[in-house]
Structure formats: C-alpha cells, structure tokens
What we know:
globular, alpha+beta, four-stranded antiparallel sheet, about 250 residues, three-stranded antiparallel sheet, 2 domains, 13 strands
Amino acid sequence: MKKEKIILFYSLAIMVMLLIIICSCEKEDENNNDELSGTVTDIDGNVYKTVTIGSQIWMAENLNVGKIINGFYSQADDGEIEKYAYSNDPDNCNIYGGLYQWPEMMQYATQEGAQGVCPDGWHIPTDDELKILEGTVDSLYGIGDPEWDIDGYYRGSNAGKNLKSTYDWNSDGNGVDLFGFNALPGGMRGDNGSFSGKKVGAYFWTSTETSSSYYMAWNRYLSSFDKGILRSDGILFSFPEFYGYSVRCIKDD
C-alpha cells in the first residue's frame, strides 16, 4: 500500500510538472504566434497580415491604431495615439486604416527608423528602406539604381502597379498586387481638416525628415494615373508633416 502511495505521489508530481511545461510553451507560442502565422498585433488588439518581400517583412495592411479625432484638429502629444478617419467616417478606417500626421506617427521622436506608433519589433520605414522595396518589386530598375533617388517625379517602370491592390482604384488604375503589399487608395488629410484623394491615391510617410525647420519629411505617392511611385521631400509640393498620411510598418532586422 505504501509503495502504491509513493507511485501515486510521483505520478501526480510528474503531471504537475507537465502542466507547468505545457502552460509555459503555450505562453511562448502566444508571444510568437504573430510571427508564425504571418500577422502582427498592435496595442489596440488590431491584427494585421504581414508579407515578406525580398529581404524585408512588411505589414500588408495600413496601420489603424489609435483614437479617431476630428480632421479639423491637429493630433496632439498627449500620451494617446490619435488618428484621422477619411471624411471623419470611422468606416473608412476599417477599410483604409488611419491617417497620421508625421509627429504623431513618430510619437514625437525625430530619428529615422523610430518605432513610432508601430507594434513592438516594428518601425516606421526609412526613405532608404522604401527604396529597397521599390527596387525589389520593379521589373526594370533594381535595388540601388539611381532611379530611386529621383525626387518629384514618378519613378520606376511598374513598382507602383505591382504594389497596388487589384481593386478600388478609380480610372482603371488598379494594380496587380504582385507581392501581396495590397496598397489601397486611402487618400489623405490636408489643410484645415480637408480630405482628398480617396480611390485616387495612396500616401505613405517615411521616418526620414528632409527639413526639421520647415517640418518636411520624405513620403511616397501611388496614383491611379501612373504605374510608378512618386517620391517627394514635401517641399516641392508643399506637403508638410501636419498632413495626414497612411502608415505601413516594417519589421525590425
């Protein structure tokens, strides 16, 4: 009888140890699940698909983290992430994600490559990282080609078309989404709370400033009317950092 109790004791002890190990593994799996499943989750619990393009891992959807505020007001450094919904309609955030002013997106950091409003382990892409993406997806101009240094013009042979979604673009401007990036024409928030460009253009920030004195930063524009991608320093077209653009995060190396 004593022997049976000893066996029972050790059996229960082994079961407890196994349960601890299983729970520990489940916790680790939970922490790593985003990476394994090709998704990433922001601090609000929004889950985004991710896609590997060349040597980079990108969100395959526009960021949609934060609280919606009216487009008439500037986003504030108040400890809470804020976003704009196109035309102040929350349904547009569900489709196109939020629109962010540059300082808010960066969470008031200024160094390129900052995490900003991105989830942990991700960051706001730099101008150079977007050049790498463009060179990866274009069929004519590869990574490092001087084509990608051009400012103020549509660049590339078909990089824009290859990144654009296959639907929702006006004027027969749909893309082929060759790499799963699925760029949607979410438009922008402009001066004094105005909105423009929905179904016509996709505007994306980089984390690389061009002029802190004039509040300008490198950005990208994909259009219904061109297969390339326009790179702007903000100065040429007077699109300063208080405009609201879409955000795509890139995974840290």
